[in-house]
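Q: Sequence in, structure out?
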Amino acid sequence: MRFSLLLVAICLSLVSAGQPKEKYTHNVFWGRIALADNITSKLRVELWLQKRTQDTEAHTSIFNAPQYDSYWLWFNYALSPNLKLAISPFGYFQNYVLYTEPADLDRPAIKEFRYTLRLEHEQKGSFVNYSNRYSIEYRTRDIAFNGHYEPNWRFRYMARLEKPIHAEWLNGKSLSLILYDEVMIQFGKAVKDSPSIFDQNRIYAGFSYSLMKNIKITPGYLFVIQQRPSGDVLDYVNTFWVVLAFDNVISQFIHPPKGTDKQR
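A: Exactly. Output:
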């Protein structure tokens, strides 16, 4: 926890050092469908299908214009009950600029390929569970829209709290309250001219609820502070985020529940 607060303080000081002159506020919707299944008792595969939309002028819908599309493949391996290693060998993204003027709607999306290594450690407590998550991403982006992909690295750190709720009225379904703070810094060729290594900070509050045995929904609110590469513009993003996760998407059909008649 102390490391998290220290890292946030350092990154906020880096933002201040950049002395941004302009600030924009945006309202955005993030949607994710997560398809997952177990390969072995320790190895798990996930596919994330993501879409983000944004408002444009004031008082317009958060679904008014595209902001982001992605397809992200993950393999997760449990090194121990509390330590997980995740590798993403492939991620494809299309990023649209956050809206500030009508001309932004005519700008094409920046195409990106991303490769990620992530380590997560969870400490289960009697009242709340605490996790540290460390990620390193190698990103290549067609920033100039000329087919030449510029590379850079991005480091991400997340401190996460989760409070499982146990109550009779849940009728056996799971419910958890979730809080986290994630800080991102970046470096490398694509961002070498940026005056600060700070990329963004994400603060989240939400909950996770099991709709059915293999389906879970996680809605929440995410506040994002994002610095543009020029270093003199900050985006404040109010994000309404919904994740719909489907587990055992293949194995539930291959391995029927115990007690069923396989000959039927």
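The mean pLDDT is 90.
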